[in-house]
């Protein structure tokens, strides 16, 4: 069996499924649902129907995009890879409903689990018969769609329940949950896993989504400012608009460099929930909550939520206080707090010159 799995490149490991596949899924989600939301919002604000339609097409393809991305990360053969488009559509559609038939938030999580299973089944039979062009797609699609019908609604129910619990707990205890959500999602963003995929899987929105945005921005903007001495403008842009994951190698060498941005997240999280009631109601389903300032997707998602709330009557208008809250939570406070916390860390010798240098 081990020889067979090795020959088929089926690697059952936490890294392959929890890091490679999850990270690829987030990229697929970004290239479909998230881009679609941004384009659609832009089209609505500029009154350009073509952009609104384009955004709708992008969003509709989120399931196939995620599944194909997962298959690519698992190094699936081409016939398996292309067959995963159908699997992703089925898993995302059925996972976006609960067992009761109500709308759910488990589409991305269902795609992750089911696409992995279908891809590995397809890889197992790939090129094992003389009619591979029939067998491989059939096995991949049959396994994926069958699993979607069997377990996707249950996954949708579970994901919605967890997401709803986090949102409920954040409303009930905004201070403590503001700290917990902000710190944990921010840490996930810097680790080699996908905070965006986690937030999307849970459908994290509302106050909890706002706290998640705060934590992600604290990590990205914080590391960008903290390491400016070593990395200058290139590092500021690559971390502030790219990803704080670039510091992961340095964190392994000296974990104490993680203290300033993490403490900043612990401060901005409850400020977001308790002071500004900062919410993420982006209609894309929570993925923007875990993106931070990567391409400014987090702030754009917050803005898209404002537009959605105004359109549905939940919010009267976008106010100056809204813009002030966004500027403080997403940019100003993460930069200032991380820089200030970094001063005593450097004086104590916890952070030394060169510790934050990017290769």
Describe the structure.
α7 crosses α10 (206-226), α10 runs antiparallel to α11 and α13 (259-275) runs antiparallel to α15 (320-347). The radius of gyration is 21 Å and the shape is globular. Helices cover 75% and strands 0% of the residues. It folds into 2 domains: 2-162, no CATH class; 173-347, no CATH class. With 359 residues, it is mostly helical. The chain has helices spanning 2-7, 14-46, 49-60, 62-73, 78-95, 107-125, 132-172, 174-190, 195-202, 206-226, 228-242, 248-253, 259-275, 297-312, 320-347. The chain is built from 15 helices and no strands.
Brief overview, please?
The protein is mostly helical and 359 residues long. It has two domains: 2-162, no CATH class; 173-347, no CATH class.
Order of helices and strands: HHHHHHHHHHHHHHH
Q: Count every helix, treating DSSP H or I runs of 4 or more residues as helices.
A: 15
Q: Low-confidence segments, ≥5 residues, pLDDT <50?
A: none
Apparent shape: globular
Count of domain modules: 2
Provide mean pLDDT, rounded: 90
């Amino acid at each position: 069996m081990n020889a067979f799995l090795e020959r088929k490149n089926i690697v059952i490991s936490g890294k392959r499924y929890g890091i490679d596949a999850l990270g690829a899924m987030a990229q697929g989600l970004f290239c479909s649902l998230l881009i679609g939301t941004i384009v659609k919002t832009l089209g609505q604000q500029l009154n350009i129907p073509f952009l609104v339609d384009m955004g709708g097409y992008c969003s509709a393809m989120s399931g196939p995009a995620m599944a194909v991305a997962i298959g690519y990360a698992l190094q699936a053969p081409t016939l398996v890879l292309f067959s995963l488009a159908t699997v992703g559509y089925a898993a995302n559609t059925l996972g976006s409903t609960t067992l009761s038939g109500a709308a759910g938030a488990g589409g991305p999580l269902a795609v992750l689990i089911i696409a992995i299973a279908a891809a590995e089944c397809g890889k197992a039979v790939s090129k094992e018969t003389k009619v591979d062009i029939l067998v491989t797609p059939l096995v991949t699609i049959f396994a994926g769609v069958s699993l979607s019908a069997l377990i996707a609604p249950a996954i949708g129910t579970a994901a919605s329940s967890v997401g709803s619990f986090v949102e409920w707990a954040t409303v009930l205890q905004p201070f403590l949950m503001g700290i917990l959500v902000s710190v944990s999602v921010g840490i996930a963003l810097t680790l080699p896993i996908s905070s965006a995929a986690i937030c999307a899987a849970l459908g994290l929105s509302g106050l909890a989504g706002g706290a998640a945005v705060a934590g992600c921005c604290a990590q990205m903007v914080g590391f960008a400012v903290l390491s400016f001495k070593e990395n200058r403008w290139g590092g500021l842009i690559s971390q502030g608009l790219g990803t704080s994951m670039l510091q992961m190698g340095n964190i392994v060498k000296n974990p104490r460099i993680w203290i300033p941005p993490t403490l900043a997240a612990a401060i901005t999280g409850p400020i977001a929930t308790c002071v500004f009631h900062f919410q993420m109601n982006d209609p894309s389903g929570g993925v923007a909550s875990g993106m931070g300032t990567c391409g400014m997707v987090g702030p754009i998602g917050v803005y898209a939520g404002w537009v959605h709330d105004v359109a549905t009557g939940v919010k009267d208008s976008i106010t100056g206080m809204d813009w002030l809250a966004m500027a403080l939570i997403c940019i100003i406070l993460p930069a200032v707090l991380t820089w200030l916390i970094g001063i005593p860390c450097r004086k104590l010798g916890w952070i030394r010159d060169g510790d934050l240098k990017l290769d």
